Please model this.
Amino acid sequence: MAEMVETAYLSWIIFAWAWCLLSIVNGQVVYSVSEESNPGTTVGHLAKDLNLNVQDLELRGFQLVSGPNTRYFDLNMKTGVLHIKDRLDREELCGRTSKCALELEAIVNSPLNMYRFEVNVLDINDHAPTFRSAKRELNISESATLGDRFALPSAYDPDVGSNSVKSYKLSPNEHFSLDVQSGGEQSVSAELVLQKALDREKQPVVQLILTAVDGGKPPRSGTLNIKVNVMDVNDNTPVCDKPLYKARISENSPSGTSVITVHANDADDGPNGEIVYSFVNHDNDGIIDSFAINSESGEITVKGELDHEINSAAEIRVQAKDKGPNPRSAFCKILVEILDVNDNYPEISVTSLVNVVTEDSPDGTMVGLLTVKDKDANKNGAAMLKLEGSVPFTLQNTYKNRYSLTVKGHLDRETVAQYNITIIANDEGTPPLSSSSVLTVQVSDVNDNPPRFPEPVINVYVKENSQIGAVIHTVSAFDPDVGDNARITYSLLENSKSTSVSSLVNINSDSGDIHSLQSFNYEEMKTFQFKVQATDSGAPPLSSNVSVNVFILDENDNSPGILAPYSEHGSVNTENIPYSAEAGYFVAKIRAVDADSGYNALLSYHISEPKGNNLFRIGSSSGEIRTKRRMSDNDLKTHPLVIVVSDSGEPSLSATVSIDVVVVESTGDIQTQFKHAPIKEESFSDLNLYLLIAIVSVSVIFLLSLISFNSSKMLQDRRQFQQVQRPSDHHTP
Model:
């Protein structure tokens, strides 16, 4: 049902629009209004002319449809009267078209209707004729014949019809008349007609006024000032002041330098008496291209390069020609002497050059041969060479302008691997000229530097039980040489005073990686020493050594061991105590040792079973077992104890011992008399105290020994290293 209602509604809208379109009137209202009418001027009663009820206009929304022309008009919705809203300029709106019609549309609602109408903008004579330029010059020869015509510019008037240009007038004169021609309603032109012969000598200029008049009422007009220049007839030939000019100019004078000025006279006036100067073409003579002449003044200047060595003089012919319609010419000659100056720089050429010399080259070794030349003559062409700066080379003059470059001084590639040798050439001219050339000489390497370790002694710290084949350290040496002279291989040197180092470690000859060959045991070996030798691949090879101290670091790899008379877990030990024993009664003392060192050997004692025991306690550091209280009838006769002995390593290792404590009725049944020792407060045991003192003492002694050993080693290796660095000690130690 809803869809049917919606379909019916859409059908009604389509019908309404179709009806509105059919209701647009076929007849069209046309209004006319003059341009430049004041805003507010009534154009027409649009509602009345469209047969609309004025009382319904506002209710039906009577209005203009927005368009390009609505900005100029305003429609009163209450009265239906159309007014001018903005200035109307017909020339701006329609140009020079004869009809200027503005199309507009109005619309009303209920029912919807659209009306089209036009407003014709009428032209008024609001523009005067104008010429493009206020002045015009005409050049007319004094030889012009009577009846000759000369076109004049047309005036422009943006108005149309009768308001446009209609006629022309010429001011009174004795030489010209005016012929006005009409080509249509808006096409009028004028021509000057020569009525009397012109004579430049009597009257060189004729002043005229041309007036353009339109057909408006009242008419408007515009004027053009015409200046007629009477042109002279060319009947005189130019004459040069001199038939031959002479000048001197230095070679390489800059462009624009003045050489000489030629001059000619012509008796005619105007263009007939104006002279144009130019060069006469010289066949196959390139020297003319080095000069330029000012066509107006006749001044000759330098344009290109002048070279005395190529041309010592130049001959130039100049043409002086007037500007007449039938130009006349005269010719004059100029001789220019080109003076020599010191304008050539010395030129350095390399005859031969050895680009690479070894750093051990002796003095006098030949590096290159050079030649210096100067195109100038005499002193300007006398040149000599010298070296710039301080370099281990020297120049020797071998013959005239030939030189040899040789070594003079010590060469060290590691200090300077390349020399850029600057050679200066100077001539003896005034002022002197110089040039330079840079020669590049490479210094090749010789094996004059042994490998160097950054320090004479290397300390390496390795944990015991480390993986066999692991890299414990990497040694690295530096050789300032290059190529094979700097390619280093590493090897081990045996120390006759200790265990064969080859059974402990080996070294990668290329990378310097030191690998372990066994898993080290701190309890068996705490340190060992060896030397590494770095050898380059030069010829002969050079080498140096470094001492390596390897320190084995202890790990907690040994469990505590129970000392007699007790044995470890697996067998039960028995101790008897009397029923009458007081609190703190001494039961037994557990002793244990640990093969490790330091904290890995620091032991502590604990009762692990039974849990929560309230009858016995054990000193954590002393290992002494004592009673906590007196016996009671409720206590068992036999008390099985499990004692755990733990070290302080990470992770901690431990051992256990089992003891059965038997309670007897009388003291006579107790075999061990020392068990009735007096009660002492639990404190740090004598054994652990001794152990701690021993640990500290060993550590201090070990540290002092290490410092003393390293100091002696460093001193010994430094002496050996200094001996290797001596220039004369270039051999394998």
User: Anything to note?
Assistant: Residues 135-231 form a domain with the Immunoglobulin-like fold (CATH 2.60.40.60). The chain is about 10% helix and 40% strand. The helical segments are 2-22, 46-49, 90-94, 686-725. The chain has a mean pLDDT of 83.
